[in-house]
Amino acid sequence: MRGTDNGPGSAAHRCASLALRRVRDDDVWMSIVIKPIGKDERATWEPLWQGYLRFYKSSQTPEETEVTWLRIFEATEPMFALGAYADEKLLGIVHYLYHRSFWTVGNYCYLQDLFVAEEARNRGLARALIEAVMAEARLVGASRVHWLTQEDNATARALYDKLADKSGFIQYRKIF
């Protein structure tokens, strides 16, 4: 268990993410569970993580993947991962982190990575993962949840347009 208060990483924070949703899958209702990914689930998390990296035409060294994995479980890190499970199988992941802002008292929650296995898409898992992050952020007093996507990611943007407002900002970056 991370922390002792109700902030990110606390028991109260982590328990909020356990959510049961029912979604339609080819005219059959299936139950999905959204919960924190466990330390013993790297073998099921990593293929989804690698799928996400491939989708964005990116990659990580083995060392970077190791550090990414370890940060999820490090008590001093404000970084978290939830999974979407159907029949106890991990089918989707979301990574998010908290950071300060000069503009508000509450932290911001940055939903950094979201990926659903190809065979599990269009079942509501991405929506359930985003809504779980939003619920967690509200629980810990965050002022907002924000995320980025590529302009041409029309499928994801159709969902995002239903869940949040476009900021109107353009991102600039300099990679070192």
In which range does the helix fraction lie? Answer: 25-40%
List segments where confidence is low: pLDDT < 50 over at least 5 consecutive residues.
1-7, 10-17
Order of helices and strands: HEEHHEEEHEH
Strand order of the largest sheet: 1-2-3-4-5-6
CATH architecture: 3-Layer(aba) Sandwich
Could you say what the CATH topology is called? Aminopeptidase
Q: Structural class of the secondary elements?
A: alpha+beta
Q: Biggest sheet, in brief?
A: 6 strands, mixed
Q: What count of helical segments does DSSP give?
A: 5
Mean pLDDT: 86
The CATH class: Alpha Beta
* Global geometry: globular
Radius of gyration based on Cα positions = 16 Å
Number of domains: 1
The fourth-level CATH homologous superfamily is Gcn5-related N-acetyltransferase (GNAT)
Strand tally, please? 6
What is the percentage of strand-forming residues?
Answer: 25-35%
Distance between the first and last residues' Cα: 34 Å
